Structures are given as structure tokens and as C-alpha cells.
Amino acid sequence: MIPSKFDYERANTIDEAIKYLVEYGDEAKLLAGGHSLLPAMKLRLNNPVKLVDINRIPELKYIKEEDDTICIGAATTHYEIESSELIKGKISMLSQIAGSIGDVQVRNMGTIGGSLAHADPAADWPAGMLATDAVLVLKGPDGLRTINAHDFFLGLYTTSLAENEIITEIRIPIPHGNTGTAYTKCMQPASRFALVGCAAIISKNNGLCDNVKLAFTGVSANAFRDAAVEEALTGHAPDVDNITIAAEKAALDADVLSDHFASEDYRRHLAKVYAKRALMEAADNL
């Protein structure tokens, strides 16, 4: 299908993009990589009057280390994250997540900020953001504000991002000590979206897990941390028996999706399977 008629503007700065958002309100949409917005426009599910291109704003494209934190500009592409030596050396799970998204064309054009703002229930980045305790930096007409990833994802395609705000940066604390990370997913073969995706982080002290983080995507209407699995493994050795026991608690309290790709029962089964795989891989990476 063909999108409805719209005007196009290329913003050169963040403030210029915000100016357009304020001027046009809910009739304006931001364009970064376009892999979420353009298909919706072609189906006429989204009909912006003004399309504001932010993909070439230099201040939105970077990966750097600052104060024990990895800082990623919101217009950084999946491929740039996947191939970053800094990220591979500090939080390799992020490179793993980026490399699992779509195909080569999607990874070269799609951006982390666009994916987070769209909040597709099957997108990969939300699980990684929750597992790493990421903080998102947002900018609107009233200035900057920060929000924890746990408070950002509200529901199906719903976030706490205001209509006149832009995600400018993602801040991810660098894990220290004996820490292993991993991301695994069961993907829909055509789109490569996650039927179930699982991000795991394990820190070990004196042979026992002293910090376990496990987050799912694809399971429910929005990504979530699974406290039951985390609590079941914390204080225990990260061996196959303890990980198996903990993984059996996966998604027990979740409102699990059911669609033509996977039933609720199948997704619950996959949650256990991929929780175990992610935790085992994270343990192997310790």
C-alpha cells in the first residue's frame, strides 16, 4: 500500500526536531531508521502530517564510556552496537542482542532509540535494557529528564515518552566483578522478532550467585523482569541443577500472549526453555 500524504523535514539538531514536535503535536512523527514507522504508514495504521527525520543528527550518534557507564546515542544503529569493540569488551550481551535483530539491512538502518520508542512486544532491546538496569535520557521543550527502563515500558506499544519528547541517550552501567551475560531467543523465522527472548546477567561471589537479572521479551504485552527466577537462583551455585530449578519458575505470573505464531501454553514452555539457555550461557561466560 501507499502512505497517505505527508510533509517531510530533516532536523539538523535535537532542538530543531523538538520544535517540529511542539508545532505539529500528535500530527508529527519522528523518523530514524524507519523500520517500524514506514510499514505502519504503508498500512495506513499511522498517518502523520509531518515526518521529522532525525537520522542525521550528529549528537544522537555515538558509543562511549563515561563514569563506569556505556552511553549510546539514540540514533546509533544496531550494526554499530553489534560491531563496537567497547561494547564487546564491557557488556557483550548488547552486541549479541544487536546481532540478532532482523537482517543486515535492518541492522544497518534501524536504531536503538527507534526500537525502544516503538516498544514492540517482540522487540529485542527492551529485555536488554531491563536486565542491565539501563537509564534513558529524554529531551523535550522543558529540557532533559532521565527515566529507568523499568518505568519506561508501560504496555503494548506504550511507553512513558511524551509526544513532544525524543530519546537522546541510553546509559547502561558496566557490570563489575565476576559477571556473565547472555541473550537467547526463539525467533519468528521471517521477521526474526522474538517469540520469546531472554536476557540474563549473573554475578558470582564465593561460588554463589549474588546478583541475578533475567528479563523477557515476546512473552507478554511488554518486556518484564522475572523476579521469581532471579530469587530462585540468587544465593545458589550457577550449576545446571540450580539453573534448571530456577528456570521452571519462568513467566509463572505473567499475562502471556497468544497469537497465530504461538499459543499461550507454547510461549510459557518456551520461556522456561530460553530462561535456562540464557542462564546457562551467562554462567559459562562468568
Describe the protein's architecture and organization.
It is a single chain. The protein is α+β, with helices and mostly antiparallel strands. The protein has three domains: 7-53, 2-Layer Sandwich (Uridine Diphospho-n-acetylenolpyruvylglucosamine Reductase, domain 2), CATH 3.30.43.10; 59-173, Uridine Diphospho-n-acetylenolpyruvylglucosamine Reductase, domain 3; 179-284, CO dehydrogenase flavoprotein, C-terminal domain (Enolase-like, domain 1), CATH 3.30.390.50. Helix content is 34%, strand content 27%. The protein is built from twelve helices and 14 strands. The strands form four sheets. It has a five-stranded antiparallel beta sheet, with helices on both faces. A hairpin with a 2-residue loop joins strand 6 (135-140) and strand 7 (143-148). The chain is globular and about 60 Å long. The chain starts with 6 loop residues before the first strand and ends with a helix. The model has no long low-confidence stretch (mean pLDDT 94).
Total E-strand runs: 14
The CATH C-level name of the largest domain is: Alpha Beta
Shape: globular
Structural class: alpha+beta
Rg over CA atoms: 19 Å
* Spatial separation of the terminal alpha carbons: 49 Å
Q: Which percent range fits the helix content?
A: 25-40%
Order of helices and strands: EHEHEEEHHHHHHEEHEEEEEEEHHH
